[in-house]
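Hi Y.,

Following your request, here is the sequence exactly as I used it, all 473 residues.
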Amino acid sequence: MSTNDRKQVHPYIPNTVPDVQRQMLDEIGVQRIEDLYDIIPDSLKLNRMMDLPPALGEYELQRYVEGLLAKNKSVKDVVSFLGAGCWPHFIPAVCNEINQRSEFVTAYAGEPYEDHGRFQALFEYQSLVAELVDMDVVNVPTFDWPQAASTSLRMAGRITGRKHVLMPRNMDAEKLMVIANYIHPDLSYSFVDYVGETSELDLADLQSKLNEDVAAVYFENPTFFGVIESQGQQIADLAHSVGALCVVGVDPSSLGVLKPPSGYGADIVCGELQPLGMHMNYGGGQAGFIATRDEEKFVMEYPSRLFGIAPTIVEGEYGFGDVAYDRTSFALREKGKESVGTQTALWGITAGVYLALLGPHGMQELGQTIMQKSQYAAKLLSEIEGVAGRFGSPFFKEFVVDFTETGKKVEDIHRALLALGIQGGKDLSGDFPALGQCALYCVTEVHTQEEIEQLVSAISACVACPVEGVMSV
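Below is the corresponding structure, written out as C-alpha cells. Let me know if you'd prefer a different format.
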C-alpha cells in the first residue's frame, strides 16, 4: 500500500482501505460508492465536502467527549420534578447487581446455547407483571411505552380486521409522534376530546366517533396530565358496543393503589416499565410491556417473544422456552406481521427483580407514599398567589400547575429554578397552548419534604419578583 493510500484509511470507519473497498464494489457490480445512493434525489445530497475538524487521536477524542459529558446535570446534581414518561424513582441496589451479571447484560432475548437462566428470568418477569396488571400473558419488553402502545393498536387492528383507532387528545406529543409513524399506513387515527374541567375523556365525543371501522379505543390511566381516569368501565363498554377493543396505557407504579385496567374492561394493557427499577438514562432506561388474556386471538398477534414453562422428559423437571415462536418475524422474516428486532430483555429482568423485591405490600406502600407526597406538593403550590392546580380531579404522581395568573412564562420560571439547582416540570404551553402557561410536575417517593418545600419557596419568590429572571431565595 502506498503512503497516499494509507492516508485514506480512517481509524474509526471499517472497510476504508482502498483495495478492500474496490474488491467490495466489484463484487456487487458498481463503480463508485456514490452509485449506491443513486436512489436519493440530488436535492437531498450535500454535494460538497463537510467542514469537519481534523481527526483526533484516541486520547484527545476521549478527553473531548468527557468534557462534553461533564456539562450534563443529573438528578444527583439537581432536584428534579420532571416526569412526562421518564420519572425519578428509587432504584434498589439489587436491581443494578442482577442486571449487570454477564449472563444477563445484553439487550437481546437470549438463545438456548447461551441462556444460563435468562429464559427463566424472563418467564418470572412476565409472571410478575401479569400479576400486577391482572392479565395472563406478557411479552418480552419493547423499546418503550410508545412502541408498546403502537404494537397494541396494530394487534387490535389485525384482530378486528379494522383500520381506525381513537386516541385521547391530551396525549404526550412525543408519544403520539411515535404511534402515528408506527401504525401508518395500516391504521388511521383520530382524537377524542377531553373534558376541560377534569381532563378525563369526553364520553359524548367518544360515542359520536365510534363506528364499525374502529379497531380500538386507546386511553391512559393516569392520563398524560396525571389525572386518574374514573370512567374506564364506561369507555370500555362503549368500545365493546361497536366491536372495538379497549387498549389502556398504564404507569405500573400506580397499580399498588389503583385498580388494574383488566378490572374495568381492558382487552390489551400496555405501559412503561421504567419506574420498576430502571435509572433515568439519556437515550435508554425505557422499556414497554404489553399484556392480554390467554386467548389464542391475542397470543397469536403478539409480534414479540413470549416465554413459557413446560415439563421435560425428566419427571419433575421443567424447562423454559419460546411460546408459538413461528408467529414471530424471527421465524417468518419479511412475512412477519411486525418485525421484532432487538428487544429490551435486560430491562424486563430488571423489572422482575424490582417486583419480586417489593411484592404486593411494597407496591401498595410505594403507591400510597407517592400519592401522599404529590398531594402535599400540589396543595402547597396552590397556596402561592397566582398559582393554581389546573384540574380538580384526583391524580397520582403528576399534576398540572397553572402559572397563567402570575403573568410569567413557564420557561422563565423554570430557568430561574434551574439556576437554584431545581429542575421544574414539563412546560405544556407549546404542545397544549389552550391551557395557557401550564406545566406538568412530578413528585414521587424520592422527593423529601424539604425538597418539596424548597421548590415551593423558590417558585413563590420567582412569581413575586417584578424583574424577569432576577430572584433570590
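Residues 1-6 have pLDDT under 50 and may be disordered.

Thanks again,
Q.
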